[in-house]
Amino acid sequence: FQNIQSTNWQTMRFKPPPPNSSIGWRVEFRPCEVQITDFENAAIVCFTVLLTRVILSYKLNLLIPISKVDQNMIRGQKRDAVKLEKFWFRRDITSDKKSDNTQSEYTEFTINEIINGKLEETFNNLPIANMLEEYVKQLIYNNKITLEVGGAPRSAP
Questions:
Q1: Domain residue ranges in the chain
Q2: Name one GO cellular component term (predicted).
Q3: How far is it, in rounded angstroms, from Cα 5 to Cα 26?
Q4: How confident is the model at residue 117 (pLDDT cuts 50, 70, 90)?
C-alpha cells in the first residue's frame, strides 16, 4: 500500500486507521515546502485548514485525472510557477455531473485564476477566495447568533 501510494500521491497522503481504532481513514495535505518566515508558514496552514472546511461545506468536486496531477506537479516545481505556469483544474468544481466530453471538464488556469476566478463564460466556478470569505462570514454570523441568544459559546461545525 505505501509503495503504491507514494508513487503518485505527492500532494496528499492517505493515512489508514490504526488497528483496533474507530477513527477511520484520514487525508494529510502536503501542498508545499516550508516557507521563509513563520508568518508565511502560518498563513499557508490557515489557508489549508479553511480550504478543507470549504471543500467539505460546499461539497466541492476537485477530482482530476492523475495524469493531469502529474503534469501539475512537474509544472509546480519550476521557478516562479505560482506566477508563470498554468495548472490543470476543473471548469466547474460545484457540480458532480459528468460531461460527455471529459476533456472539456478540465482546462489550464493560473493559480491566480483558480483562487480569484476567471472572467470567462466557460469557467463556471465561484472564485475559491469568495467561497472562503463566505464561509468565514457564516462562521462569524453563526457564533454571533449563538452569543446573542444567550447560549454558551460552542465550536462551529
A1: 1-142
A2: glutamate-cysteine ligase complex
A3: 14
A4: confident
